[in-house]
Amino acid sequence: MTKGMTNGIKINSLYHSSLERSLIGFALLSGTLAALGCYFIGQYFALPVITSAVISSLFLAIYLKLFTRTYKKVINSFNRNHAHLDAILNEDYNQLVKPSYQAGSIHQLQQSLIDLSEELFKKKSRYDQHVFLVYQLIEHFNVPIMVLDQHNKLSYANNAFSEFKQTQWQTLRYTSAEQLGLTKQGAHWQFSDVITAQQWQIRHSEFIEQGSCHQLIVMIDITSALRENQLQAWQQIIRVLGHEIRNSLTPVTAMAENLAVKLTEPRQVQALNVISERCNYLNEFVTRYGDINKPLTLNIVEIDTAAFLKQVCAIYPDVKFSCVTNATTFKADRTFIHQVMINLVKNAIEASIPPIKIALGVHNQGKVNCITIDDNGQGLANPDNIFVPFYTTKQQGQGIGLSFCRNVIEQHHGSLSLINKNKTQGVLATVLLPNE
Questions:
Q1: Backbone phi, then psi, for 237, in 5-degree steps?
Q2: Looking at the DSSP assignment, which residues form a beta bridge with residue 50?
Q3: Disulfide: which of 63, 135, 248, 356 matches 352 by Cβ 3.0-4.6 Å?
Q4: Where on the phi/psi map is residue 236: left (φ > 0), alpha (ψ -120 to 50), or beta?
Q5: DSSP 3-state assignment of 360?
């Protein structure tokens, strides 16, 4: 049997087994039988043929009229049920159908639809409250989060996303995922830009809102994790190298010092002193690098801003400093923050050409205090690597100063950043410290 014949049989079967056709067939059959019964009864009582026919026709007309009214009421009941189901499918739970009958199967069916609609309305209300709560939570997260609609266009985002894009997210509403720099590989989202993908990872999930599937995209900054892994790798290298270097330097230093005591030739003594000095320097070098990421014991105290800046400026009398502040005090470990400022100012001086001008600032910004060092130097040649241990652009540099500074500030639960200035030459170093 061909496919067309099979479909034709199914359609005819559905047509013949429909409620409407069954009711009409039953009405025609029962009406015809009733009319014939009336005709034969008339003949039994010897009524004229015409009279019997009129009685039969009148009975059939009344029967058909009553049937038509009942038929329409039954079919209208099912049509109303269909409309009610259609409203439920469209999540319109306010459209309730009044039962056509006060009892019976149709009444039970319509009452069941009403109960179903009310139950679904309650569940939708609870779900809408949960979705609203999700949006409220998204707003308070400090990681960039966005919501894509069923067409993969931006429908909602939080303030952290606005800061990531450096513009209000509302201006990007209905922007496609591709224009936002996102691509979907299978079931996973990722950034199309390689540099961004190296810094951020994406976690996503799906949820239903108003009958449509939405994508919840959470962006996770992995810079700190990568930096932690990087520092751990450096630490492992330092431990191995430090152990071997110390084992070699200790006997060399001891022999050089012993020989220096026995020799009388000044040049030979000087050479041995240089050897001892360089060995001590290398030993100190390894020790300092080994301490680059160790936890610090901090003594957080209230520091007088004016006195602190005065002490820093006094170390470099040849530099022209300008100080601006609106914070009388700030909180930090006095010793470590002083060392951080010395390192940052020293870097600014070494990068500048006389006359050297450095602007220092301490400003209160609500929950944080902002310390700035603004120089007129040559700027950063490679800003992406300035915090990498051992990396330096200075001939005599060791590549540890900025790593040490960032480690100190982060253990204060703050942050350190250095950027090239846009409008003028130089670098702006910014230290953010908690104010609580």
A1: -65, -45
A2: none
A3: 356
A4: alpha
A5: strand
Strand ranges in 186-339 using DSSP code E only, listed in sequence order? 188-191, 200-209, 212-221, 300-304, 320-325, 329-333
Q: What tens digit of pLDDT does each residue of 347-381 get?
A: 888 878 788 888 999 999 888 899 999 888 777 66
CB under 8 Å to 373, separation ≥6 — which residues?
Answer: 341, 344, 345, 348, 358, 359, 360, 428, 429
What tokens does 37 get? 């019964």
How much is the average pLDDT of 20-48?
71
Q: What is the pTM of this model?
A: 0.41
To the nearest whole percent, how much of the chain has pLDDT over 70?
73
Q: Using CA atoms, how far apart are residues 343 and 398, in angstroms rounded to an integer?
A: 12
Percent above pLDDT 90 for the chain? 6
> Does the pLDDT of residue 288 top 60, yes or no?
no
d(CA 238, CA 232): 10
- Distance CA(338)–CA(313), nearest Å, equals 11
